Amino acid sequence: MKRADTSAISCIGEGTVFTGDIDTRQSLLVKGTVDGNIKAGSVIVSGEVKGNIEVLDLLELTETAHIYGDIYARQLRVLNGGIFNGSCSVSGSQ
Prior knowledge:
It is globular, with a radius of gyration of 12 Å. It has one domain. The protein contains no helices and 15 strands. The protein is mainly β. The strands form three sheets. The protein has a five-stranded parallel sheet, with no helix packed on it. A five-stranded parallel sheet has the order 2-5-8-11-14, with no helix packed on it. A five-stranded parallel sheet has the order 3-6-9-12-15, with no helix packed on it.
């Protein structure tokens, strides 16, 4: 797999509800709600995701994150208070 493009960041803002799948090699910041699957270069979640997340590099769950789905990532960081309900596969060799 190719490395993530960290030169640009897309954001789902606080109070925003996005329904559908997201597919990008860029970085994604989720402050609102995503009801769908995410494939991205790297992702920071401080809102809610109802769907699977597949990340080329780092997935970070902040203190306010709620994930309801499976995670596939090269690196995973979960800050104290982040909530995750699903299965998880973390591999440094993706």
